[in-house]
Amino acid sequence: MQRLTCLAVFFFCLLAATPLQAQKLKDAYIDIKEKTLRKEYSNLAMLPVVAASSAHAPQAIIERIAAQVREIMEDEDFTLLPPEEVAAIRAEFAALYSEPSAAENQAAIDEHTIRELFYRHPVDGLLTVQVLPVGAPFRDDKAEWAGTSQKIEHEGDGFFGTLMGTDYGGTIAASAIRVIISDRAGRPLYNWMGGVEVMMMRKGESLEPLPPEALWQSDKRVVKAVKYALKPL
Fold this sequence. Notes:
The chain is an alpha/beta fold. Helices cover 33% and strands 30% of the residues. The protein has one domain. The model is unreliable at 1-19 (pLDDT under 50).
């Protein structure tokens, strides 16, 4: 098997330091049983969806993901304080700073936001949703990760490559949706991902990023990823 290497994989997967989960859904729960989580953490504040810029997710997709997560969680009898409430509190504190975008100010704003959130609302914990790039293992032009799989677009194998076939494999950049439930102290209780789509194509023995406009075109894959990220619930 030929192993592909490409600098683009490193940059696309920089945020994916956490290994992809094993396929046992029970691993989504961290030092807690599902029954206990449902009983003690059924009232959550949903934070605004955090999308890595390198995931190239349009605002419409981010809103679609947020709505889908809320629908499923509420169907599972969780009570959610909407992310708009959290965003409004954050905006109040951001207005107190002349440079709210500065890194040190953002950290202070976030800290004050969470403290004020818990003061105003009797929620049990936080619901965080992330859209991020991850590294997806692949072989023979098929990637499999976080509950999904996808054939990789490819070109440039030449006549003999097309005739005789190839056996390429390695790691390719892909997108995923991660859902985290944490307690009021920030300790994670639930952490699971659903894979969306590959973000690269193969040209011969190299991997190249797909253009941003080619991504996030399948609503079906987005919905499937959200459902898988919440499947252990």
